[in-house]
Design goal:
The complex is a heterodimer. Chain A is α+β, with helices and mostly antiparallel strands. Chain A is built from nine helices and 23 strands. In chain A, the strands form two sheets. In chain A, strands 1, 2, 3, 4, 5, 6, 7, 8, 9, 10, 11, 12 and 13 form a 13-stranded mixed sheet that branches. In chain A, strands 14, 15, 16, 17, 18, 19, 20, 21, 22 and 23 form a ten-stranded antiparallel sheet that branches. In chain A, strand 6 and strand 7 form a beta hairpin. Chain B is an all-alpha fold.
Chain lengths: ~475, ~170
């Protein structure tokens, strides 16, 4: 290892020998530019950590595929408390976790303590008044500072959401569901300013009566309730789902109208009035979990491939109305009998119990690489895409070719960028059949799905190519 | 938010990437480095009244980080042998001088990562997102640890080349 960059990488990976360390020191001593190269490399190491720590792309992999004893170190105390992207939130976490935990857990005690101890640290902690409780397909406006789930939010923080949903929980328990596009500012511990866009606020009567949503034209004052606000340039539209709210116009600050459950109102520049024609369509909450959260991955093995009957309601079977296109990527056809289309033909190969291993109805993964199957669903028949309930991949052969690993990702009608569900593996199977069956604990795996992508590769512990028999994607049109 | 609180939040938000990068250059193990950065932030916050606003905040923060790293090395008895005092001083000084360049590089990295996909991205995600060592990544992907180390080295080289290209483009013609 003589290349200086390799020496630096060896240092970063903890594999540098004493002699190599000495060689690195001599090289660093030679020239200031060498030292600059060292810092550029170590900074890249740090920046990659920040980036991928936030993305958690390999979380599912670590849960399912990592052999015991080989996992990375578990997150420490701070990370477990607030698993937010390091690059964005370390400052907030450090300043906030220890001191503001009390704010969220025992507000009266903490507030009393704050009154007695007006130190810098406590003053700092008081400014953190809410946190991001969750998000769904959140797209941030250009130039906006993203807020990650779990991040503590300071007074004055503006959230500029271009699309998607963001759930915010105030320290007093008030929940605000922001619906992009929207600009919302955490104004005080008991209020927020909705510059434009929609939100739904849920305020338990016992927790935070008096919570205020300010808008450019007027305020919506909670009287213990659940309500939606749509701030538009010429009008603020309000609907009450539970309890009551008071509306007041910005120009007067007088409480003009109180809305009861089921009523709608409108604040304009010159009036506050009931608005019976308003048809509210505020988001009710974050949809079921997305990404790797809540996924169940069953691995089933059998000596008999017939055990795995392909699903009849498979969205990606050849000839299915729901399948627009099936595309192999990097697929190497080394034998005509091992064709790509066999993995979605609705058939598995011959029983391994019978002792016959037919080459038909299967596709081989090259031993040294991987290939990808991409299934594009037909959105002319279902414009909203598809709810995917179950995904199953089946492999079967003799020797050590019966297992497989697969990375599954998908995109949706609304979000062309692919989201990765995770990396799944049957583990090593020495003859017979194996299946990875993926479900979600509650609800569909994903909604509005347009394309599903499966990248197959071999399992650890063997250099033999797995034989993929079938892929099933079960679901229904999104309604 | 008091003025002092606002000021600290603003300064630390701007500086923490540089501090994290500096600490990582001396303590490569992620969890240790992240713990040290958290300690640095707490020390800075407690001692903020001592901060001289005429000095660059990031220089002050890096100075505090240097002391925290030295304490960490003492506690663990794990100081890298090649990082003697003279080299440590050079690293500390140069990190402060390169703050702007390294910040630009971080922004460029966001764009360069868009070109990394497939197996290369999976390996990066496993190494940096899950803190898996090359041996564990190799077991999972069915290859050797050496192959993973080489793959990661190549990806880092490609990213560095991409970053330099982007930085040159942003400078424009001379």
């Amino acid at each position: 290892m003589n290349d200086p960059l390799e020496l630096i990488d060896g240092y970063l990976e903890g594999t540098l020998s004493e002699a190599e360390g000495e060689a690195l020191r001599r090289w660093l001593d030679e020239d200031r530019e060498h030292l600059a190269t060292f810092l550029r490399r170590t900074n890249l190491h740090c920046a990659l950590r920040s980036t991928f720590l936030g993305q958690r792309e390999a979380q599912q992999y670590a849960d399912l595929a990592t052999p015991r004893g080989t996992r990375g170190r578990k997150p420490r105390f701070f990370a477990r408390l607030a698993p937010t992207p390091f690059s964005i939130t370390v400052a907030t976490i450090v300043m906030g976790v220890v001191l503001t935990a009390m704010y969220f857990m025992a507000p009266p005690v903490y507030r009393a303590w704050v009154r007695r101890h007006e130190t810098h640290e406590t003053a700092m902690s008081r400014t953190l008044v809410a946190r991001v409780a969750g998000a769904h397909r959140a797209v941030w406006a250009a130039g906006a500072t993203p807020a990650a789930t779990g991040e503590l939010l300071a007074q004055g923080r503006t959230l500029r959401l271009q699309a998607g949903l963001l759930q915010i929980t105030y320290g007093n328990g008030v929940q605000v569901l922001l619906e992009g596009p929207a600009d919302f500012t955490i104004a005080t511990p008991e209020s927020g300013y909705l510059q434009q866009g929609k939100l739904r606020a849920t305020v338990a009567a016992s927790q935070a009566k008096g919570f205020v949503v300010e808008t450019p034209l007027g305020d919506v004052v909670d009287l213990g309730t659940e309500f939606g606000v749509d701030a538009q340039p010429t009008a603020t539209l309000v609907h009450v789902y539970q309890g009551r709210v008071a509306l007041r116009r910005r120009a007067t600050a007088d409480t003009s109208t109180v809305l009861q459950r089921g009523e709608s109102g409108v604040i304009s520049s010159d009036s506050v009035a009931l608005n019976p024609d308003f048809k509210p369509n505020f988001a009710r909450g974050l949809p079921a979990a997305s990404g790797a959260e809540g996924l169940i991955a069953d691995v089933i093995t059998s000596r008999d491939v017939d055990y795995f009957a392909p699903s009849d309601d498979d969205l990606v079977n050849a000839g299915s109305r729901s399948l627009l296109a099936a595309t192999p990527i990097d697929f190497e056809l080394d034998q005509p009998a091992l064709a790509f289309d066999y993995i979605h033909d609705g058939k598995t190969a011959a029983s391994t119990l019978s002792g016959t291993f037919e080459n038909e109805n299967s596709a081989r993964v090259p031993s040294q690489s991987s290939w990808t199957a991409e299934f594009q669903l037909d959105t002319t028949t279902s414009a909203q895409g598809y709810d995917i309930e179950r995904i199953e991949t089946i492999s079967s052969w003799h020797d050590q070719r019966a297992g497989h690993s697969v990375i599954i990702s998908y995109n949706t009608v609304a979000q062309p960028q692919f989201e990765r569900l995770g990396v799944f593996t049957t583990g090593l199977i020495d003859g017979g059949s194996g299946s990875v069956r993926i479900l979600r604990k509650a609800g569909p795996i994903a909604s509005g799905v347009k394309t599903i992508r499966l990248q197959f590769f071999r399992t650890s512990g063997t250099k033999l190519s797995p034989i993929i028999q079938e892929v099933d994607v079960v679901g229904t049109p999104t309604k | 938010m008091s003025n002092e609180s606002e000021q600290f939040t603003l300064l630390w938000t701007r500086a923490h990437h540089s501090v994290a990068a500096y600490v990582s250059s001396l303590v490569p193990e992620f969890a240790d480095a992240e713990d040290i950065v958290q300690e640095v932030a707490l020390v800075l916050m407690r001692r903020f009244a001592e901060f001289d606003p005429d000095r660059p905040f990031v220089a002050w923060a890096i100075g505090v980080a240097r002391l925290q790293v030295l304490q960490h090395w003492d506690r663990r008895r794990q100081r890298p042998k090649f990082l003697d005092d003279a080299l440590l001083e050079k690293v500390t000084t140069l990190q402060g001088e390169m703050v702007d360049e390294l910040a630009q590089a971080r922004r460029a990295l966001e764009f360069c990562l868009r070109d990394i996909d497939g197996r290369r991205r999976t390996a990066l995600a496993m190494r940096y997102g899950e803190n898996l060592q090359p041996t564990a990544i190799a077991q999972a992907l069915g290859t050797s640890a050496t192959a993973i180390r080489n793959l990661l080295n190549r990806v880092r080289n490609d990213l560095r080349a991409c970053i330099e290209r982007r930085l040159r483009q942003s400078e424009g013609p001379a």
